[in-house]
Amino acid sequence: QLQLVESGGGLVQPGGSLRLSCTSSRRTLDVYAIGWFRQAPGKEREGVSCISSNGEKTKYEDSVKGRFTVSRDKNKNTVYLQMNSLRPEDTAVYYCAGAGDMIGTWLSTVGADFRSWGQGTQVTVSS
After folding, report:
1. Pairing mode, strands 121-125 and 10-12
2. If you placed Cys at 23, which of 29, 31, 75, 78 could pair as Cys (CB 3.0 to 4.6 Å)?
3. In a 10 Å sphere around its CB, with 0-12 CB exposed, 13-18 middle and 19+ buried, how is residue 75 labelled?
4. What is the pLDDT of residues 48-81, one digit of tens each?
5. How far is Cα 22 from Cα 35, in angstroms, rounded to an integer?
6. Phi first, then psi: what are they for 88, rounded to 5°?
7. How far, in Å, CA of 117 to CA of 119, rounded?
8. Contact 22, 78 (CB under 8 A)
């Protein structure tokens, strides 16, 4: 079972930046596509972004295109979500999730496609 841990959340002013990290201490992430999701209070969970297991393909939802960037560092066994130009509506608990993919290019931002989830990290955008 892949165990994921997110970090990097916090309080930031509108227009600011944060970088979230997703890592696993027990397994290599090399064979997993990693998705980022978020859930705001009173709202359903929504997909944000995804990076393929080989790191060559990425996907973003329209609400974050041009502002968020997903990347992975295989040496550090970590996937990052760089969030710039943050808005109050980005406030949510952010989760990373893993889906095994030996092909290397699979992408999804549908939560049901992912089996392993982290505990989440809170991001609050407020002045």
Report:
1. parallel
2. 78
3. exposed
4. 999 999 999 999 999 999 999 999 999 999 999 9
5. 10
6. -55, -35
7. 7
8. yes
